[in-house]
Every structure is written in C-alpha cells, then in structure tokens.
Amino acid sequence: MTRSKSLVVAFAAALVAGGAAAQGGAPAGDAAKGREKVQMCQGCHGIDGWRTAFPEVYSVPKIGGQHPAYLVAALKAYKGGDRTHPSMRAIAAGLSDQDMADLAAYYAAPDMKTAGK
Ligand code: HEC
Q1: pLDDT tens digit string along 90-103?
Q2: Which residue in 39, 36, 37, 17 sits closest to 28, CA to CA?
Q3: What pLDDT is recorded for position 72?
Q4: Residue 109: CB partners within 8 Å, gap ≥ 6?
C-alpha cells in the first residue's frame, strides 16, 4: 500500500518537474528525455543534420513539428493495433506512455526537422 502510494507521489512529482501541464491526464512529455530516446527512430525518421541514408530510399511520414497529441495518438494506435504497420507496431510495443510523451515533446518542437519534405 505505502509502496504504491509513494510511486504515485513520485510520478506526480515527475509531472511537475516536467513543467508542461499534462493534457487530458496523459503524462507530460519531456523533450530532453525524448531526445535520448530517438536513436531508435532515427534510422527511419531521420533528422536534418543527423541524417542516415535511409530516409532517402525509404518513405516515412514527417513527424517533426506535428502536434504532440497527434504523435502520441499515432503511437498508441500502433501499440494497440488500430494501426497495423509492422515496423511501427514493433517499435510502439516497446514504448511506455511516458516514452511516447517524451518522444512527442521532442518531435513536436517547432524547429524540428525530420527527413522527408
Ligand atoms: C523501421 C523504420 C521505422 C522506425 C525505426 C520508426 N518508424 Fe515511425 N514510421 C515508419 C513508417 C514506415 C511509418 C508509416 C507507417 C504507416 O503507414 O502506418 C511510420 C509512422 C510513424 C508515425 C505516424 C505518423 C503519421 O503522420 O501518421 C509516428 C508518430 C512515428 N512513426 C513515430 C516513430 C517514433 C517516435 C519512432 C521511434 C520510437 C519511430 N517512429 C521509429 C517507420 C519507422
């Protein structure tokens, strides 16, 4: 009991530390943390200045600059099976709600540029 309660407190503290108000009860995204997690996205959703050869030959949607709620919704849809693309399903299956929020905060930055015009 006490253990789960302290977990809730820690989670709430993390949300406050994250700054941005949580939208609709979802965890607040931390762009700095998201940045540490994007290595697994880079190969396909390459970023200008940190580009792999991959996006040139592989067509992936532009995710930089999208609304964070849209990105989280898309990742949840892959994880939940509403979207069926195999690679994105495999990726999303390994993401927690917090990972998704952090990644969305990172990719939603206005100056973010992913590959793909
Ligand atoms: C193996 C290549 C690959 C990797 C790795 C990958 N993606 Fe994707 N991603 C794709 C492809 C291909 C699509 C389009 C799938 C479709 O048509 O549903 C996509 C779609 C998306 C979408 C939906 C975009 C939209 O506008 O509908 C989001 C959001 C997304 N990816 C985020 C991520 C994030 C975040 C990561 C890293 C955690 C990641 N992807 C890693 C290939 C990849």
Answers
A1: 999 999 999 999 99
A2: 17
A3: 97
A4: 31, 64, 65
Q: If pLDDT is split at 50, 70 and 90, which confidence band does 65 have?
A: confident
- Dihedral angle sign, alpha carbons of residues 9, 15, 18, 21: negative
61 lines ligand 1 (CB under 6 A): yes
Q: Is 83 in the pocket of ligand 1 (CB under 6 A)?
A: yes
Give the residue, out of 60, 96, 100, with the most ligand 1 atoms within 8 A of its beta carbon, to mutate for a pocket test. 60
Q: Which atom of ligand 1 lies nearest, measured to the CA of 66? A: 26
- The token duo for 23 is 């939208």
Those residues with Cβ within 8 angstroms of residue 63's Cβ, 6 or more apart along the chain or in another chain: 41, 45, 71, 107, 114
pLDDT value of position 112:
63
Task: Judge if the beta carbon of residue 45 lies within 6 A of ligand 1.
Answer: yes
pLDDT for the residue 49: 46
